[in-house]
């Protein structure tokens, strides 16, 4: 269990995400990836789990990341950059996509290569719908991250659509499911892009992650 975030971390998180954020680039191949810069944090999850909505909520912007109601619209690695060179990477959703199989295979291979080879990647947040919890379709992504020894953490989304008791049970259920995954961060965060639940804690968690990563690099 992660220690509660301090008031200073909460405030640092607010300031970080109140800064300037911008679209950096979109990459459909390893050759088109932007040159490594600051620390990178990637967002993964099933199609329509709310990656773009979460990024907009974090940064307090309505349209930094394009939100689509059609599964499979994100077909590239989408890079956004903020203060201090911190980057977020919106990865194509998995599990369903309105795209030809060869395209799905191509971006799946891109994701695998990015996760395994990107030295600046500090963590992958795997988004899971709080209403449904982990599903079989999530397993390959979690297996990949484990095999690549990439730090990853489960974020429950749409937490405002679940009653408090059910949400607490879902957190326990997911925590138990990832307990044996060595690369999985054991603390599960519940968030809602719509209501703002959990967003200050997630910002603080990112501040803590960035500080830890910079400490490792010294």
Question: In terms of topology, how is this protein built?
Answer:
Elements: H1 7-18, E1 22-27, E2 40-45, H2 51-59, E3 77-81, E4 87-90, H3 101-117, E5 121-129, H4 139-147, E6 152-157, H5 164-178, E7 189-190, H6 199-217
Parallel strand pairs: 2-4, 2-5, 5-6, 6-7
Antiparallel strand pairs: 1-3, 3-4
Please name the defining characteristics of this protein.
218 residues; alpha/beta; 7-stranded mixed sheet; 37% helix
Which sheet architecture does the biggest sheet show? 7 strands, mixed
User: What is the CA–CA distance across the termini?
Assistant: 27 Å
Count of strand segments: 7
Oligomer: single chain
Beta-sheet strand percentage?
A: 15-25%
Output the strand order for the largest sheet.
1-3-4-2-5-6-7
The radius of gyration over CA amounts to 16 Å
In DSSP terms (H or I, runs of 4 or more residues), the helix count works out at 6
**Averaged pLDDT, please?**
89
Question: What class do helices, strands and sheet pairing give?
Answer: alpha/beta
Query: Uncertain regions: pLDDT < 50 for 5+ in a row?
Result: none
Question: Can you tell me the overall shape?
Answer: globular
Percent helix range: 25-40%
Q: Which H/E pattern describes the elements?
A: HEEHEEHEHEHEH
